Amino acid sequence: MKGRLNIMDINKILAQEFNLKQEQIDNTVALFDEDKTIPFIARYRKELTGSLDDQILREIHDRLTYLRNLEKRKAEISSSIEEQGKMTDELAKAIQEAKTLVEIEDLYRPYKPKRKTRASIARERGLEPLAVLIMLQDHNTNPQKEAEKFIDVEKEIVDINVALQGAMDIIAEDISDDAELRKLLRETVAKHGIITSKASDETAESVYENYYDYSEPVNKIAQHRVLALDRGEKENFLKVSVTIPDEMGISLITNKYAKNDSECGNLVRLACEDSYKRLIYPSIEREIRSELTEKAAEQAIKVFSSNLRQLLMQPPIKNTVTLGLDPAYRTGCKIAVVDDTGKVLDTTVIYPTPPVNKIKEAKETLSHLIAKHGVTTIAIGNGTASRESEAFVAELIKEIPQKVSYMVVSEAGASVYSASKLAAEEFPQYDVSLRSAVSIARRLQDPLAELVKIDPKAIGVGQYQHDMPKAKLNEALSGVVESCVNTVGVDLNTASFSLLSYVAGINSTVAKNIVAYREENGAFTDRKQLLKVPKLGKKSFEQCAGFLRVRNSKNPLDNTAVHPESYEAVKALVEKCGFKLADIGDGKAIDIENNAKAIGLDKISESLGLGIPTLNDIIKELQKPGRDVRDELPPPLLRSGDIMEMKDLAVGMELVGTVRNITDFGAFVDIGVHEDGLVHISQICDKFIKHPLEAVKVGEIVKVKILDVDLNRKRISLTMKL
């Protein structure tokens, strides 16, 4: 079919855009088409992809989807135009060469079935010949005289003015359908346009007051400001527009269509002006605004995704009994004690905060729980009454003999989880508030295992997340969660349904079936048992097996990231290197890398039929079976009573804090008071950076100095330039 891309063309485009070898792209696309999951491809098909990581694979997948949709749309449009008998070689070539969906739709605009318009009504009345005549712009043509011929009362053409207006409506619409012109105007607005915002009500108080009289070039506006303007407009505080001087836009059209100063030429000029103001520019403005929003949303989603990845990958605090405290005033602070596996040992409610202020009783209750269960860490939610609760805990741990540390934990999403169906199924015996306390304790122990239960949008590590395109945001964030879960690996015998559902190749139904099988038959003893789980067939097993760990399996490889498809090759590798398989589980194969290198990795690779990347991955796993990649990261900052109120902060004070959130304009740092301080992008480091993510990440422990404290606005300005 004319104008259609083929699949090989798409692969070629991808190779060029991503600067990759054609073979890498061809293999990767083939794996996608075989329904292999991205985590599986990234981990176990490195030889085919050239060791592409999951982030690049997702970008390739997204671009592949776009190009295939583009191809599909080209075919649909070509077919529609051919059915109308209007396809030309020139048009077919233009469709084939179009690189975006916008370009395609511009080309299709003249042939697209239209709703009722002023021009379509004029055409129905038979005024198109008059429009054609005027467009010729002949000096000898008298348009008024020609218009008389079209007067027809039955068609509601009552005089020459109605006839001429109808003809000009046709000309205006034809001009607005000019794909080349629209492209030129779009480029002009993108280059010279000014985005402006005005207050809907200048007296109204809002967070958008900085934008009540604001303007900035379209090509320079920061993406977070685009989102701020969009939200302000949505909430009816702002009126936003994109403009270029009218004469600039109109001249682009008249230069192309108005040929002379004849009577007909002057009518064409009027039609050009009408086409620009009524049809073209409102449409172009919408497109430019939409494009700005789309790009800003993409950036915001990237930042959100990066923050979420860092949050999920924060090191767990292992082998600790943790007390979770969900702060509150009137209703009391909810308490939950969980053991090192997350099992709930005890729950209660204390009232150390206003208006009740039963501080003595609260101390006695907590002291008893700490002593009874051997609590070593306390997780305090950062919501309402957090500061008062932290002060209470800091005072308590100074008074008791046990060594206890605490950490203020973001409770974003805890209330969403506690009220969810999932939480009700997990803890039917507890009310909503006690479930929150359990969640707060568990997210300190293992952030990943707990946070996967919460809708990523509710976790609160981004900007304007509620304004993002829902489908795109969900897809991106789910991809991040999936990537993190599969990077860390999942204990098959302790993992929740929520955690299992993010494992490659496992959907919600299969995840529930795994939990049901475990409850009915007891703990899994090896990976092969997975094949007995209902609806988990060979295809799913191939995708998920390598990411699931069976800690006490007879086969020590079941507690590693080694895929079952490589078990036979690994047995041969272990023997070649002078070890037994049992040595893996006992941690005695620490020298396996040196022994393998002594033999020669190329030689081993060839004899075992394993690629070098896979061989290296396997050797790393055999050295540290059951390792948690998160353990290699610095541990979270635990506090021991260094509590301060905002009024106690002073300019110049140096503190240690934890990065809680990152936006386009800076990083928010928890320094031990209720309000997080902002390190503006200009204060993060001495060298120029385009984005804070280049220098800091969520969960990172940083040294900061106080620049300013605004008690009224509850804002703290920090610097990392010490």
Q: Which stretches of 5+ consecutive residues score pLDDT under 50?
A: 1-6
Q: What Rg, in angstroms, do the CA atoms define?
A: 33 Å
What general form does the structure show? globular
Using the coordinates above, name the CATH class of the largest domain.
Mainly Alpha
Structural descriptors:
30 helices, about 725 residues, alpha/beta, Tex N-terminal region-like, 5 domains, Arc Repressor Mutant, subunit A, 5-stranded mixed beta sheet, 5-stranded mixed β-barrel, Nucleotidyltransferase, domain 5
Written account of the structure:
The longest helix has 50 residues, at 263-312. This protein has five domains: 7-111, Arc Repressor Mutant, subunit A; 146-303, Tex N-terminal region-like (Orthogonal Bundle); 322-479, YqgF/RNase H-like domain (Nucleotidyltransferase, domain 5); 517-632, Tex RuvX-like domain-like (DNA polymerase, domain 1, Orthogonal Bundle); 646-719, Beta Barrel (OB fold (Dihydrolipoamide Acetyltransferase, E2P)). It contains 30 helices and 15 strands. Helix 9 (128-136) packs across helix 11 (160-176), helix 11 packs parallel to helix 15 and helix 13 (223-234) packs across helix 15 (263-312). Strand 11 and strand 12 form a beta hairpin. It is α/β, with parallel strands linked by helices.
Please write out the topology.
Blueprint: H1 7-17, H2 22-33, H3 38-44, H4 46-49, H5 54-83, H6 89-97, H7 101-108, H8 118-124, H9 128-136, H10 143-148, H11 160-176, H12 179-192, E1 194-199, E2 213-217, H13 223-234, E3 238-243, H14 246-257, H15 263-312, E4 322-326, E5 333-338, E6 344-350, H16 359-373, E7 377-381, H17 386-399, E8 405-409, H18 414-418, H19 421-426, H20 432-445, H21 447-451, H22 470-488, E9 490-491, H23 497-500, H24 508-521, H25 538-544, E10 548-549, H26 567-576, H27 581-585, H28 592-599, H29 601-608, H30 612-623, E11 654-663, E12 666-670, E13 677-680, E14 701-710, E15 715-719
Parallel strand pairs: 4-7, 7-8, 9-10, 13-15
Antiparallel strand pairs: 1-2, 1-3, 4-5, 5-6, 11-12, 11-14, 12-13, 14-15
